[in-house]
């Protein structure tokens, strides 16, 4: 079986290619992908060639870890059934072509245990579950008490705020880009230069490696900085300010399956809204333009590729 897939031959050279899929085994399922998302964090680093050394790194590669589709073939030991709508967190099924993270394709073969059934009603919004799970994982590592700050009002920042508000918290958001501050938010989104508050917990969703000293300076004594972005540059901080505040710094790693299950249930029940986060859509055949828009247009919060017209 073959699939149309996005392939990065080398940095800033991207297109569609017809790739042979690995033959599925008894524990695997084959998924016809409907939509896949473009990450402006890790995938931007892959695109630009600035990705730090990472397991499986190398070109050519198939990017993408935010795919939603329908199971069209299910092995007897896969635990899946034909017709299920599933979230696919990437795949490695393209033979010699690396799958990092391997989700941007018309069809995917994956171990059934990696696939997460989701409500069909989520539609294209289902691609946001990876970021929602990332947000949940970042929040779950510490108690949310006292004043809360989220840094960055992209999709991850907005999902962090939505999950915090579900839990009864009332965070403030820092955003330097006036276009992303907006005027219709139900919570304060402010220019950092206009804020001198001290916070008990600061969650950085910006991925800006140069912010750490600024964030530590805004902590209450004993406060915590949570690093929820993906950082291409080494992080460092001046010790005296951290010492005076007895600051805690925590790295939020990749989400775990239970995080994905939790946010899928919340989104399916309506407790967590995924609305108004996908701002741009392109047919998969226009993938090169879609990636350039996702990485270069400040008005693009989230771009998705629509695979339903692909063979």
From TrEMBL:
Which molecular function terms from Gene Ontology are attached?
bacteriochlorophyllide-a dehydrogenase activity
Xref: InterPro entries? ADH-like_N, BchC, GroES-like_sf, NAD(P)-bd_dom_sf
User: Which domain of life does this protein belong to?
Assistant: Bacteria
Alphabetical UniProt keywords: Oxidoreductase
Q: Which Pfam families match?
A: ADH_N
What range(s) does the Alcohol dehydrogenase-like N-terminal domain occupy? 25-110
Q: Which NCBIfam families match?
A: bchC
This chain belongs to the protein called 2-desacetyl-2-hydroxyethyl bacteriochlorophyllide A dehydrogenase
């Amino acid at each position: 079986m073959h699939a149309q897939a996005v392939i990065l031959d080398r940095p800033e050279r991207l297109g569609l290619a017809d790739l042979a899929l690995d033959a599925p085994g008894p524990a695997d399922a084959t998924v016809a992908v409907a939509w896949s998302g473009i990450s402006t964090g890790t995938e931007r680093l892959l695109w630009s060639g600035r990705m730090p050394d990472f397991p499986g790194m190398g070109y050519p590669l198939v990017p993408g870890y935010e795919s939603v589709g329908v199971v069209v073939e299910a092995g007897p030991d896969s635990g899946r059934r034909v017709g299920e709508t599933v979230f696919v967190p990437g795949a490695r099924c393209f033979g010699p072509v690396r799958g990092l993270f391997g989700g941007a394709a018309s069809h995917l073969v994956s171990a059934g245990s990696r696939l997460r059934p989701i409500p069909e009603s989520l539609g294209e919004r289902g691609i946001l579950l990876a970021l929602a799970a990332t947000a949940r994982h970042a929040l779950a590592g510490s108690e949310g008490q006292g004043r809360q700050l989220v840094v960055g009002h992209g999709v991850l920042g907005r999902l962090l705020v939505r999950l915090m508000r579900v839990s009864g918290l009332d965070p403030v958001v820092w955003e330097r880009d006036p276009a992303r501050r907006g005027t219709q938010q139900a919570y304060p989104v402010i220019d950092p230069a206009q804020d001198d508050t001290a916070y008990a917990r600061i969650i950085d969703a910006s991925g800006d490696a140069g912010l750490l000293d600024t964030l530590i300076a805004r902590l209450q004594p004993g406060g915590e900085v949570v690093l929820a972005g993906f950082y291409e540059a080494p992080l460092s901080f001046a010790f005296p300010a951290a010492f005076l505040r007895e600051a805690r710094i925590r790295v939020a790693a990749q989400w775990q399956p239970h995080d994905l299950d939790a946010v899928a249930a919340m989104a399916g029940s309506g407790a967590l809204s995924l609305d108004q986060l996908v701002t741009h859509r392109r047919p998969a055949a226009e993938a090169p333009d879609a990636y350039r828009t996702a990485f270069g247009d400040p008005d693009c919060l989230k771009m998705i590729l629509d695979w339903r017209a692909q063979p």
